[in-house]
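Holo model, pyridoxal-5'-phosphate. Inputs:
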Amino acid sequence: MVQTYYVDGQFVAASEAVIPVDDLAIMRGFGVFDLLRTLNGQPLFLKEHIRRLEDSAGRIGIQLPWSHRKLIDIVLDTLHRNSFEESNIRIVVTGGSSTDFITPQGKPRLLVLVTQAPVLPEKWYTDGVKIITFFSERSIPGAKSIDYIAATIALKKAQEQGATEAVYVDHKGHVLEGTTSNIFALIDGKLTTPGTGILSGITRKAVLELAAKTLPVDIRDLGQDELTSAGEVFITGTNKMIVPVVQVDRASIGDGRPGRVTQTLTRALSKQIEDTYKKTKRIKS
Ligand SMILES: Cc1ncc(COP(=O)(O)O)c(C=O)c1O
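Output:
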């Protein structure tokens, strides 16, 4: 099977996928993207991810020449040209070529990259993970910009310290989000998560809806010291779902084991997704 990408209007073998070097994505890191995954071969929350891509593009001033329907069709077409059991799908909108290498000239490029979904370590879910804090804030946090410079640096630092994720802390000492995740803390029986300065995570939204059925939810600024003294902490993201956090920097969280609320929400989210995207059901859009 030849792995196929969609690149600027054409389906090409992944090994031959290229874009011109004068694209603003390369010259200036100007572009947006979204990442989704499949379950039973079906893209999870496809419409939500496309909507967020459209929103991200709008936030940095890129006008998309593709309709919502067209974007969905291109993504599904690319997915179906590949045959991974489960896939990750990256949809990228670049700033397009620019003769002065800085001014967008209204010709964004669309890329759809389908790759095999990685299998994540079981230990993350059974034992929980360590995360570190990292002083940084994204300039347009609501947009999923392709600029992940801080994320790349922060993740490397996390990995050097045996941690799975780094979470950004802003100049006010507020915890914002991870490099590719949102963060939650159980504080005084309330599921607390920041509401500003973050990417509006699609997993975060699903978790908030589920949580609201059984416990109080508090969307507000979250201090770094509140995080380290929380009863439970977890992170959420498309590429990891809900991952329990048992250590933040040097501080152990709760009793150092994945918490009860985290586990309950993990089961509820898996059930909801598995029920919605059943094996037999074949969704075309
Ligand atoms: C900066 C940032 N925040 C949060 C998230 C989590 O969002 P989602 O649950 O939609 O994957 C991601 C992952 O895409 C991210 O890159």
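Residues 122-273 form a domain with the D-amino Acid Aminotransferase; Chain A, domain 2 fold (CATH 3.20.10.10). The mean pLDDT is 96.
Archived with the compound record.
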